[in-house]
């Protein structure tokens, strides 16, 4: 049986797949031994496990595709497995029967917010605050303060949008927009950045989740490059 040792790592057997870690990387392979006869494969419990894992894996793949505008510069080959483990943890914590109800319940109880989806990220999501009533996004200096000296003349690339999720787990990204802010704007410990994203498309509060991606980049436009392939890219629910 597969187990998670944190939000990002799955170890053990799930269905006919084996998850394992080697040299700090996540791997998955088909199970080649044990009870692989047809009766075992057709057992209701086996079928149910396969069904749940398929839903989880397909949703993670769709989710990764739809948040690509937030972190397309990031180079991390384990990101899909990280998402599978993350959403598996969310579903387990909420004890819901479907991924959709798990997401709604987790967001309602604040279990999606302030959890970085990038396991190697050095930017803490706790310094990013969003007020749904005023639509204000606030970023505090603590996000980059201990790293700022490494990146003179750098910028924060701040991407915000809303992910719409249906009961069938179909996703759609709306109201996506980018902001570029000099990192020096957070030069003092009490400094903060306040942004008011524009809303052009209506959103359903029960199925739409605000989402943000923040990266430390070299310049203030879309051609900007990351200072690091994954350490300084944060993606999280708001």
Question: How would you characterize this protein structure?
Answer:
This protein has helices at 38-41, 44-66, 68-71, 79-94, 99-108, and strands at residues 3-4, 10-14, 17-22, 25-30, 128-131, 136-140, 155-165, 171-182, 192-195, 208-217, 233-237. Helix 2 crosses helix 4 (79-94) and helix 4 packs across helix 5. A hairpin with a 2-residue loop joins strand 2 (10-14) and strand 3 (17-22). It is α+β, with helices and mostly antiparallel strands. The chain has one domain (3-237). The model has no long low-confidence stretch (mean pLDDT 81). The radius of gyration is 19 Å and the shape is globular. The protein contains five helices and eleven strands, in the order E-E-E-E-H-H-H-H-H-E-E-E-E-E-E-E.
Topology:
Layout: E1 3-4, E2 10-14, E3 17-22, E4 25-30, H1 38-41, H2 44-66, H3 68-71, H4 79-94, H5 99-108, E5 128-131, E6 136-140, E7 155-165, E8 171-182, E9 192-195, E10 208-217, E11 233-237
Antiparallel strand pairs: 1-2, 2-3, 3-4, 5-6, 6-9, 7-8, 7-10, 10-11
Number of domains: 1
Query: Structural class, from helix and strand content?
Result: alpha+beta
Helix content: 10-25%
* Fraction in beta strands: 25-35%
Using DSSP, what is the number of strands? 11
Strand order of the largest sheet: 1-2-3-4
Distance between the termini: 33 Å
Q: What summary fits the major beta sheet?
A: 4 strands, antiparallel
Instruction: Work out the radius of gyration.
Output: 19 Å
Number of helices: 5
The average pLDDT value, as a whole number, equals: 81
Q: Order of helices and strands, N to C? A: EEEEHHHHHEEEEEEE
């Amino acid at each position: 049986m597969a187990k998670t040792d944190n939000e990002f790592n799955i170890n053990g057997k799930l269905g006919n797949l084996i998850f394992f870690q080697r040299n700090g990387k996540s791997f998955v392979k088909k199970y080649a031994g044990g009870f692989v006869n047809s009766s075992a494969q057709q057992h209701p419990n086996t079928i149910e496990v396969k069904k749940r894992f398929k839903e989880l894996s397909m949703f993670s793949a769709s989710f990764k595709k739809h948040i690509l505008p937030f972190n397309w510069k990031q180079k991390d080959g384990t990101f899909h497995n990280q998402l599978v483990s993350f959403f598996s943890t969310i579903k387990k914590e909420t004890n819901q029967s479907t991924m959709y109800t798990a997401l709604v319940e987790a967001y309602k109880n604040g279990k999606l917010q302030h959890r970085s989806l990038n396991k190697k990220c050095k930017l803490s999501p706790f310094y990013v605050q969003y007020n749904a009533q005023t639509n204000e996004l606030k970023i505090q200096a603590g996000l980059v303060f201990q790293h700022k000296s490494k990146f003179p003349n750098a910028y924060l690339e701040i991407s915000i949008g809303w992910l719409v999720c249906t009961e069938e787990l179909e996703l759609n990204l709306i109201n996506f927009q980018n902001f570029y802010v000099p990192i020096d704007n957070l030069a003092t410990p009490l400094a903060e950045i306040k942004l008011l994203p524009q809303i052009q498309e209506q959103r359903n509060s029960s199925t739409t989740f605000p989402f943000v991606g923040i990266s430390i980049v070299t310049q203030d436009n879309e051609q900007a490059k990351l200072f690091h392939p994954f350490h300084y890219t944060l993606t999280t629910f708001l």
